[in-house]
Write a structure and sequence with these properties.
Order of helices and strands: HEHEHEHHHEEE
Largest sheet: 4 strands, parallel
Strand order of the largest sheet: 1-2-3-4
Shape: globular
Distance between the termini: 61 Å
Number of strands: 6
Helix content: 40-55%
Number of helices: 6
Structural class: alpha/beta
């Protein structure tokens, strides 16, 4: 009878492991949209933003086509980036984040705040070399507005966007 309980326990552990693996797979291969509606009598007209964060060089379809399509469907006035678009790894096969921001910048104004992965690249020169400088140069060349402990006023919308560099 103790062997039966061990078998039942092992089956339960196996089922839980499978459920966890499916959940991890789903969360890393699918994105979801969350909508918020804010109002203020100080904003002269409706404005729509898309907020992106923590993509960590993830691609949703070739060249992020699925994510670009989802953003196009929303037709935002601007895209807010809250950082961690790349992943701070020494070796990278592709420049997913750079290509994605470049594609977005051809259609939308981008306000880019840094995350901890960008910060790791900046402070870890010994580990990452000039990767931070190269990444920021490429992002800057897209016309994206990079905000590091500063703000930017949106054009004619009475909205101010802050980019807080968590650790400076």
């Amino acid at each position: 009878e103790p062997m039966m309980w061990i078998k039942i326990l092992l089956i339960c552990i196996a089922v839980l492991a499978i459920i966890c693996l499916i959940s991890i797979w789903h969360s890393t291969t699918h994105f979801h949209k969350v909508f918020y509606r804010l109002s203020s009598d100080k904003i002269s007209k409706p404005v729509k933003f898309v907020l992106l964060s923590d993509l960590h060089d993830k691609e949703y379809g070739p060249h992020n086509e699925k994510l670009l399509k989802a953003i196009d469907e929303e037709a935002p006035d601007a895209v807010l980036v809250a950082g961690d678009m790349p992943t701070a790894l020494e070796e990278r096969e592709k420049k997913v984040a750079e290509e994605f921001i470049t594609a977005l910048s051809k259609k939308y104004r981008i306000y880019y705040g840094l995350g901890n992965h960008e910060a790791k690249m900046r402070w870890g020169k010994k580990r990452f070399g000039n990767r931070y400088e190269e990444y920021m140069k490429e992002i800057g060349e897209t016309g994206s507005i990079i905000l590091q402990n500063e703000f930017c006023d949106c054009e004619d919308d009475n909205i101010r966007i802050y980019g807080l560099d968590m650790i400076h």
